[in-house]
Amino acid sequence: MLALAATGPEARLARAQTVNEQNEAIEEPVTPQRGNPTIPNSRKNPMAGSALFFEQELSTQTAQLEPSPELSYVPFYAWWFSLRPRWNFNDNVRVQARFDYTKELTNSEDTTLLHEDVFGDIWTDLVVEGALPRAKNTRLTGGARLIWPTSLVSQGAGVYVKAGLFGGVSQEIPFKRGAQFFATARVAARAIYLHTFSDATTPTSYGGFAYTRQNVDEFSFSSDQISGQTLVHDELDLIAEGGLQIIPKLELVLDFVVLQQWHYAPTDTSVATATGQAFVPRIGDNQTTDLVWEIAALDYDVIPEMSLSLGYYNLTNEIAPDGTLRGPFTGGEANLFWSPEARVFFTITGKLDRIWDDVSGKLFPPTPPSSMAASR
Question: If exposure means fewest CB atoms within 10 Å of the residue's CB, which of 63, 104, 264, 270 is most exposed?
Fold first, then answer.
């Protein structure tokens, strides 16, 4: 998977909100492009790494790949477009953004309306990266992120902005450079922290929604609370990634992500009884959500302007429907690697910097082999 022109698994990790509305802050495990090119700034395309994704995904039930049959047949098939512009100030500093649009072509439970247009939140990042001094083939990445509430999900929750930091390290492992098969491998680890700034501790749609309901004393009152689940105030995502270059243009990529979310605790309250006010205990009231995400994909660079990815992912709660902890060897919906939310995807990635070079007739020179070797 090329980091500067993100491919399938990176796209999958960046598309959490469509799969689970609470996971809009998952960062793709961005790792250095093969060779870590160090083209002089005056000759480097400032748009390097900009990409446009077009992805088709369907549920394992729709693809008839589910290991355990579900109670109801609810097919899912959707298109997803993601624009990822970047602007490189130099070899180490850049700004980047992300704009998502999803169109479901079936009639599953993910949207309210049939074929509803779903626009995601807008992500904006400031990224600093570079080689680790005195370390061979090792790079560090860090930065700051702001996620703006342009999606209906975030607006309905009353979110103003999500802000946070991320950082990571990647290591390239050369086996035999220039070999036809299994020339290199790579590993990477990343961590992302986000804090949500919102109108309230529960979804309120900025106070623009209200309805009449009863309180515990059976008195009517006007409420702007959309749901009973409190909002996530802090998130920590831990990402591990590995890649194996099978042939020069084909790579196998595996990702494992752990998402930890901390919700606001409900307000303590009391209930009027015949003997007086009784306080409601919250013993064992867990206000955290722990999710796991596994992704496997094959990335193939067809031409310099385009790559293809075919893969599978499963994003689900680490607690199975029966209340047990998911495991790699358990069966049915308690399995770690499959759940009814599992998806199969096919992604076409357009590398906008290379396309712009072709259209404008100004092709920025590739990195010389000597420079590539030196940068490793």
Answer: 270
